[in-house]
Here is the input.
Amino acid sequence: MQRIGQDEAEKLDYKPGVFTVERHVRGKWACRCCQKLVQAPVPAHVIDKGIPAAGLLAHLLVVKFMDHPPLYRKEHIFERAGHLIARSTLAQWVGECGAQLNPLVQALADELRRHVVLHADETPAAMLKPKQLRDGRTHKAYIWSQCTTSANPTKVVVFEFSDNRAGENVREFLKLDTPQAWQGTLVTDGFSGYNATTTKGVTSAQCRCLACAWRHFWRRQLPALTCCSGLRQMEQLQVRGGPGSQQSYRASCTSRPIGEPGRPMALARCAAR
Here is the structure.
C-alpha cells in the first residue's frame, strides 16, 4: 500500500480541573572540614507553611470573585475532581490571600487619591450573616467603587465592601477627616450620602449622563408613552374605515387589547383627582 494523502479533523475538548502535587526537594550539603551545613532557603509562598500552591489560590480567587459561586459549592466541585477540601479551609485561604493583597490595594488607593477628578458609586450585594448576629437571612450590603475618569490615562478602580450605605464609607476612603484629606471633584449620582463630602472641601458633580437620564425616564415616563402608543394605534384603526365598515368592526375588536395596558394608570390618575 502506498500513502496518497490524509484527512485531518479538529475536535474541541475540555479537561476538568485536575489536582497535581508539586514536590520541592532542597538538598543538604555538609563540609567535613568545617562541619558546616548548607541548604537552599525555602522559597516564598503566599501562605507560609501552607499546602496550597499559588496556582490553586489564584484559581480559587478568580472563581470566587469572578464567577461568584459560594465556597460550599466549590467544595463539591473539588470533591468531584478527586480531592475534598473543607469550606472552612477554603475560607481561610481566601482570607489569607486578602491579607497578602492588602498592600497592593492600599497602593492603588494612594494612587487614586492623587488625581483631582474621581468617580464614586455604590451597588447592593446580598450577604449571608450568621444566625447569632441576625436572623440568618440575606442582608443587603454594598460594594463601593472609586475610579479615575475615562479620559485619564491611569486606569485605577478600587472596590470596598461595607455592610451599610452610610456616607462615612466614601469619607473614610478619601480621608476627609485627616490632614491628608483629598481635594478635588467627585462625580456621583444623586445619592444623598455623598452630600456630606461637600462640607469637607470636595466639589460635588452629580452625573448627568445618558444612562442616568434613561433610568429615570424609563421609570417615570414609559407608562405614559405606552398609553400614547396604544391611543395612536387605535386612532389609525378608526381612520382606515368609516362607521359600520369592516375596518371599523376590526378596530373595535383590536382596540381593547391595545388600550388594556394603560387602563390601570388611567384609573389611578382619575382616583388621584
Q: What stands out?
A: Strands lie at 28-31, 36-39, 117-128, 138-148, 157-162, 185-188, 203-206. The mean pLDDT is 80. Helices lie at 54-67, 71-80, 87-112, 168-173, 210-220, 222-239, 246-259, 263-272. Residues 101 and 255 are 63 Å apart (CA to CA).
